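Hi support team,

I'm filing this because I wasn't sure whether my run with adenosine monophosphate finished correctly. The job status page said complete, but I'd like someone to confirm that the output block is well-formed before I use it downstream. Pasting the exact inputs I used:
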Amino acid sequence: MRLILLGPPGAGKGTQAKLLTGRLGIPQVSTGDILRQAVAQGTELGREAKSFMDRGALVPDEVVIGIIEERLRKPDCARGYILDGFPRTLPQAEALARALTSLHASMDRVLSVEVPEEDLVKRLTGRRVCRGCGNMYHVDTSPPRKAGRCDTCGDSLYQRDDDKEETIRHRLRVYKEQTQPLVAYYEGLGLLERIDGQGTVEEISQRVHRALG
Ligand code: AMP
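And here is everything the job wrote out:
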């Protein structure tokens, strides 16, 4: 199954993508994770992407399109994948459609995870991520058992540079202007399912499950 998780930063796409990975046995493909890894490793891609990411701006289309084209050709994507954080602009969506055509494949479903803006700001400012395994926590709603440490692997938790309030507001504006139009685009293609992204991880996961049938 090939799936896109669409939604603003903080909607819970990454969390739901990880749960779906386990359930469907297909990989999560997150351009944000790929870019953060490149930044951490100090590669040329990482150096190019960092200034955009720190400002909460989008990395240029040609860069992320190149990343995705390469990633989707890997053998683990042969049975499907969950796209998380891509596409984010109309040119990216069109490039994805062309890449799928060249691979004789098509998109099965696009889930739009919807959450009111004020909730997103609260979620993102409190978000903490594990340096080791990428597990996510929230200082108020899902704190780790031991402060600052991952429950799963014990590594330290950190706040993403772009999870500071001013950058968050900017990312949400960028989402509205550049990414939200994709909801109508995929609705027009008959692929869109809207998911209420409010509630517990488990509740949202059940809605996702129902939407996928
Ligand atoms: P995310 O983890 O999906 O919130 O992505 C973090 C940051 O990586 C974004 O704010 C962008 O700077 C960059 N990024 C991730 N995916 C894309 C994309 N599809 N297009 C452009 N920039 C992206």
